[in-house]
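Hey, I'm writing a tutorial for new members on how sequence and structure tokens pair up, and I'd like a real worked example in the thread rather than a made-up one. If someone can provide the structure for the chain below, I'll link this post from the tutorial.
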Amino acid sequence: MGKIIAVVGGIVAMAGGLALVVFSATFRAAFFAVVLGFVPPILFFGGFICLIAGISSIKDAKRTRKLEQEAEPKKDA
């Protein structure tokens, strides 16, 4: 029964939020101001995290390649 109430409550909340965005000009302006205030920092920090992950991945690949080269048996000519 609780799951049904959660679904119905979610639908009601979504409908109310949609009605506020569509019919209220002042709410729409405030909503867009908040969205435009959050989007740039989210993009910046998301990009920063991706950059760190990429650098870490490159370092791991180099380290793995180096360990594989050291583990290969040396062939004498």
